Amino acid sequence: MHRSCAFLFLLLFWVPSQGQAPFIQALTQDTSMNLSRPRVLARIAPDLYRVVGGSGNGDSAWYYSADIDAAGLLANMRTMRCGVNTTNAAPSCMLRTSDQGMLVAFAQPDPGTNSYSFAKLDVNNNVQWYRNYFDVYGQWMVDSQHALAEKDGHYFTFGRMTTVPTTEGHASIMVELDGTGVCVAQRIWAGGDMWSGEGAGIVRTADNGLLTVATEHIYSGVSSFPTMSVQRWDAALQVAWSNRYSFGYYHSVVRLMATADGGALLMGKARATLGSQAYPFFLRLDGAGQVLWARLVLNSDLVPTGMVEEPDGGFAICLYDDPPAPIVARLDSTGALVSAQRASSLSEPVHPWLISLDSITGEHLVGATTAAYEPTTYFMRLDAALSFACGSTPYLWADSIVSPTVTAFPVTVTPAWLSSADTAWASHDTPVFGATDACLSTAVREEEPEALRVWPIPAQDVLHVAWYGSGSPPITYSLIDPTGRTMMQGPVGRDGEGLWIDVHDLGFGTYLLRLETAQGRRTVRVIK
Fold first, then answer.
1. pLDDT tens digits along 228-284
2. Most Cβ neighbours (<10 Å): which of 106, 198, 344, 485?
3. Residues 477-494: tens digit of each pLDDT
């Protein structure tokens, strides 16, 4: 089987702190991955960070994790295979738990069913338990990458149920799992009418309740999503209030965050009418679901993807524009733009996916991936002004204060239950990761023993290598065996954005692949 290959880099930026200089580290992961999503970036000790995400290739989904310090030294590198017979799959949702471990959720590729699995990992990435909900046909237990929350030692998933009468919309579902992944209760609501909800997120509130948000469309189609349905659950898991909010015809990429005062901030993109421009929106709610303020950013190129609340009641937002580049903006407590910075030194289009704030040090960390084919993941630490390492430029936008339509939406909750099975699973030590200084991505780097610091590319009769860059410069290759002998060399073949090399006559073993252009050299280990 021919397998495509790509490099995964996890990059970390930080600003000077206690006399330390900023840097960028590139963490090289399994080169057979063709999809990656960062999920968690956290400071776990002074100058020590954990990078966590999901990646996928043509037949498997993977969980990956590694710790990296300020000098680029790596430790506690783990992987977990989460599913087989998938296409460009990746673990769909991850939650850092209160015990500093991880809860990983993903859909199993079982034909004819919806099958979901949950794995709980401890602080050292050892699997504590793994449960498979083996046949929950028609139920999307995890409907987005923001569909997990923790409360009182239990875990909550948020999604939808599609096995409803054809004249009714999809119902929303929240599944409560105990500390070992066993279903305690399933709560079903918002079925029985013409609306279909698609879960956009669930979060724990400051007073130990929960908030859920779904975008809604008419059951007969998905041409418009005119409402956002929000439910507020109290500490006893009773519905305190339920409202629908609307900015018009269409709502997408909706994100939800609970605020310290018991309220919430929602953001996404909204289209007022069919065919109109889609603009980013920010919607601030109080603890009773009333609108404190709402703003529409008058720039249709911007897409908001992550947010954190600042100690002063303001917000830090990550976005991208067109062509995609990470932008981080600081908003005050009324949603007004204070400042924004756009990364200016990246050599390729990049989508940011999340921003995190360390409550002790105040560090802002951003996770992103390359926009094309997404094999490269960037992790960035910003300075106190929310500027990017290696260069950023100020960014401005105009906005408008708006008033969304708010409609009370009483819901009746129906209890249910789901069965599951305990399954043996394990995460594995990853013997070879690599970290390199990658701040100046356009610089020609010195020769490095990368063959000793990257995962191997698997090869059969044809070796495929993802290659992204401007233009089509001539590329030559050499395959070198462990004794230093050159076994094969010549020009590489091209196929779209990838390279290929016929290795049919190459013997089994481990080789060093050296790719050279006029601008520089790349080396990586190959196993056939």
1. 999 999 999 999 999 999 999 989 989 999 999 999 999 999 999 988 999 999 999
2. 106
3. 888 765 556 778 888 876
From 2.70.98.40, 3.30.870.10, 2.60.40.1220, 1.10.443.10, which CATH number describes the 456-527 domain?
2.60.40.1220
DSSP state letters, 77-132:
EEEEEEEES-SS----EEEE-TTS-EEEEEEE--TTS-EEEEEEE-TTS-EEEEEE
Which structure tokens are listed for 312?
Answer: 């002063």
29, 10 Cβ separation under 8 angstroms: yes
CB 240 within 8 A of CB 207: no
The amino acid present at 243, given as its one-letter code, is N
3 state SS for 311-343: CCCCEEEEEECCCCCEEEEEECCCCCEEEEEEE
pTM: 0.78
E strand or H helix that includes residue 463: strand 462-466
Helix (H) or strand (E) holding 280: strand 278-285
Q: Map out the domains of the chain as residue ranges.
A: 1-135+318-388+418-443, 137-298+398-414, 456-527
Q: Degrees (nearest 5) of the Cα angle 308, 28, 62? A: 70
Which position has the token pair 């990838």?
Answer: 498
Return phi, psi of residue 39, to 5°.
-120, -40
Residue among 159, 156, 157, 161 nearest 143 (CA): 159
